[in-house]
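Quick one - inputs below.
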Amino acid sequence: MSSSSRTRITWLGHATVLIQTPKGTNILIDPFIQNNPKYPKEFELPSRLEAILLTHGHGDHISDAASTAKKHGSKVVAIYELADYIAGKGVQETAGMNLGGTVTINDAAATMVDAKHSSGAQDEKGVHYVGVAAGFVISIEDGPVLYHAGDTCAFGDMKLIHEIYQPKVAMLPIGGFYTMDPKEAAFASRLLKPEVILPIHWGTFPPLTGTPQQVAALVEPSVKVVSWKPGDVFEA
Ligand code: NI
Ligand code: MN
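Output:
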């Protein structure tokens, strides 16, 4: 793979995002592959994924976490109880952190931040308590600060995320129903003050009706809302 001085962000449908740093560190967020109707089927993940970050325990965020971690030699980074649950699925290397904590992955630092959402993990034995829902701020050495909100509504402490980390690129759920919709995403943008919004968690299932166009019509004109499709790459 050719090295790039930029950070590559590939949307793999729903909340699944691949981040590739200038130094070649590969980080996958919320792997939802097999049952993700919008996953770009021809897409091949890099053979080595240094880390897999999980925002919360719902199936549309973790259903392929353990299998992908085993196949790609990844450390799974998640809130303590969720990391423990994933370790129980046979993943060798996990980092069970909590809100406010930071894990370093080569030239990237992933900080777990707040989100407002439920979080339970369901398997054949029932529903398990796997901590609370979270988002991640990912600071790239010689690169941008990224924010993946996970599943959340808009909340006032997004202002704090701006004040502490100043993310340039915000990956925000916009579909509605399970998360914020375009109106709330536009309000979130006022608190986060990103340069770029990468819309996620939309278009996957019928209830997720929000679109990037609706967000673009509501945010300040200085904020770029990227209208992308699964498989597309944004370079930051
Ligand atoms: Ni969820
Ligand atoms: Mn979700």
